[in-house]
Amino acid sequence: MTPAPTLIIGAGPAxxxxxxELLRAGYPQVTILEATDAIGGISKTVAYKGxxxxxxxxxxxxxxxxxxxxxxxVLPVARPMHDGDxxxxxxxQQRLLGSHEATAREADDAVMLIRSRQSRIYxxxxxxxxxxxxxxxxxxxxxxxRCLQFAGSYMAAAARPIQPEQTLEDFFINRFGRQLYLQxxxxxxxxxxxxxxxxxxxxxxxxRIKSLSIGSAAKQALKKIVTGKTDTQHTSLIExxxxxxxxxxxxxxxxxxxxxxxxxxLLRGWxxxxxxxxxxxxxxxxxxxxxxxRQSFDASAVVSTMPIRExxxxxxxxxxxxxxAIASGLEYRDFITVGLLYRRMSPKVSGKARHVxxxxxxxxxxxxxxxxxxxxxxxxxxxxxxxxxxxxxxEFFARDDDDLWAMSEDALKQLAVREMQQLGLADEAELLDxxxxxxPKAYPGYFGAAxxxxxxxxxxxxxxDNLYLCGRNGMHRYNNQDHSMLSxxxxxxxxxxxxxxxxxxxxxNIDDDYHEEAEKKN
Length: 522
Description:
Helices cover about 35% and strands about 25% of the residues. It is an alpha/beta fold. Helix 1 (about 15-25) runs parallel beside helix 9 and helix 4 crosses helix 5. InterPro entries: Amino_oxidase, FAD/NAD-bd_sf.
């Protein structure tokens, strides 16, 4: 009798990585169920009139050699068009991407480009370094007296850190001081999450900012002045990165093509309704297509990247009452991107150039709803149909039951254009076109009573022997795509090993040294 396939729920970075790792290892049957017609999850690329939108911005950078090599196996790195090397710094070294190592050409379609990173904070009509670091730029923008206040506040926090560190507010104050926290972190973070920093778990900071602080930033700045080099162990200090020529979705569309070429079954537009189990094993999954047709899929194992809330609600029989209540109470933040096409940005910020050099601009100004602005021209020039235009993505953070999410597309376009004018970043008279994208459940919430009990839910789900949770929503963890891939790799290895090692999945993205330690062991 032919064994039932492994079923993977979701064709994002985690789902596709798990599927390919199983097939590459000779696993006989793998089926991926993707609820939408798109590939890549939130790492997809959306095309609009020849322009491309990257939802949230995805730098292809990892401290894991395995991830970097995996990406390069799918899409080779293009040889720089200029002479000389453009190194990519990671794991404390400048390595990997000299022109002598690049095997493809930028003129090829299926390639990754080497891109320079620049992100800044926009506050009071001025640009500040991001990550925020001490230096003359900060003094010029804020004044010496204010900077001395920041320094005193930081030293006070360093001398008497908040212990135990429970909330995100505690986390920021311990690393930046109360004054810098109030000036540059509090309002923006609360705009992103929709709740006060004191109500958000410090776990979010541990996973997203890790051990970066104003002290480490000062050390990095001084080292660069003295030696010309920086330590790149902190993701936020990356100075260059890889990027698919036509956006992040190109990576996952190419990976999906390989998955199918190797015999994997990829079903688009099939949303999971029910997950049937017998005691502590999942036996089959019921999904429906856009026309409402339902189909049952037998499974020897299930890799789930779907939101845990929906996963628990789909289980038949249902989880016990406490676990189901926790899952049903988990919260998410949703994401709106308004794409705006301009002839140019305001000369007040771009000078004689058509646009600024930033990948992202973090908007700290009060009185506006936009949280961040992407300049797609700087991610890849091939994201923009006409190089004589500027293609921007304004990012708004919402919840699916709030007023912002309920706004019509026309109202969101008007809001975005008005705020760009208000900020002085672009003039409405230069606008050429606009579009709106909505991404539900973009961010798993690190707040609320249910999240405080998440470990109870995790323990219950871990009791299902052949269910493997990975990816951002699959683990309700704010993972980058490389973390999602590493969790998927471990899920695939556990399936190949008959379930052994499944607990290692939860070790991904819990401390700074995880990736390096994982590389040493494998």
